[in-house]
């Protein structure tokens, strides 16, 4: 039985199969040579990994929610975000529709409630 959590896209077996090529490509960014090759020619690099149009479009837009909808796993997507100097707070801000400063303030406020 699968539970739904409003506002989330679960990463389950179906998402893993759907996002295999995308996640494999993002995992390859552990290697600097692959990061450099992607930056030099993103289209050729995406083609090398067999990304479908939904995945390629999500990569082009650099929108985390689109990447997750395309089957992306947050841990692998962090490798992609790192190429552009983005960190997990940038990703969290995108996911919540906040600025990074607003998102950081929300985290601090939540921490202060503990």
Describe the structure.
It is built from nine helices and no strands. The model has no long low-confidence stretch (mean pLDDT 90). With 114 residues, the chain is mainly α. It has helices at 13-18, 20-27, 32-40, 42-48, 53-61, 64-69, 74-83, 88-96, 100-112. The protein has a domain at 13-84: Dioxygenase LigAB, LigA subunit (Protocatechuate 4,5-dioxygenase, Chain A, Orthogonal Bundle). The termini are far apart. 68% of the residues lie in helices and 0% in strands. α8 packs across α9 (100-112).
Radius of gyration: 15 Å
Distance linking N and C termini: 32 Å
Number of DSSP strand runs = 0
Helical percentage: 55-70%
What is the architecture of one domain at the second tier of CATH? Orthogonal Bundle
Q: Can you give the mean pLDDT?
A: 90
Determine the CATH topology of one domain.
Protocatechuate 4,5-dioxygenase, Chain A
Structural class: mainly alpha
Largest sheet: none
Count of separate DSSP helical elements: 9
CATH top-level class of one domain: Mainly Alpha
What string gives the helices and strands in order? HHHHHHHHH
């Amino acid at each position: 039985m699968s539970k739904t959590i409003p506002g989330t896209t679960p990463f389950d077996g179906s998402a893993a199969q759907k996002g295999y090529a995308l996640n494999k490509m993002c995992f390859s960014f552990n290697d600097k040579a692959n990061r450099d090759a992607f930056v030099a020619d993103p289209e050729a690099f995406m083609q090398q990994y067999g990304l479908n149009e939904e995945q390629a479009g999500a990569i082009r837009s650099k929108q985390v929610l689109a990447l997750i909808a395309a089957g992306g796993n947050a841990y692998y997507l962090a490798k992609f975000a790192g190429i552009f100097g983005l960190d997990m707070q940038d990703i969290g801000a995108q996911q919540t529709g906040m600025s990074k400063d607003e998102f950081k303030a929300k985290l601090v406020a939540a921490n202060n409630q503990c």
